[in-house]
Amino acid sequence: MRHAEALARAGGADRSAYAFTPVPDGLESALDYIARALADQAAGRCLPFALVSTADERVIGSTRFLELDYWRGPLVWPPAPACPTAIR
Description:
With 88 residues, the chain is of the alpha+beta class. Helix content is 27%, strand content 17%. It is built from 2 helices and 2 strands, in the order ααββ.
């Protein structure tokens, strides 16, 4: 939540690049966006991050890992593909 104001500023830049993803528009929208991301994290559905510029420590956006799934299989993951038969 501490990044909400900065996220709102980042989302207020040129919005033409955001045609395919939801982006908060204003502080209230950013607070809601973050609250939903944190609720999804608490439910085990995602892992959200604030994107912070290393040059000036400015928040430039956010992202998240989605659809977390815990793999419970043999020790080797992913299974090694079978070698295809050579075509002659």
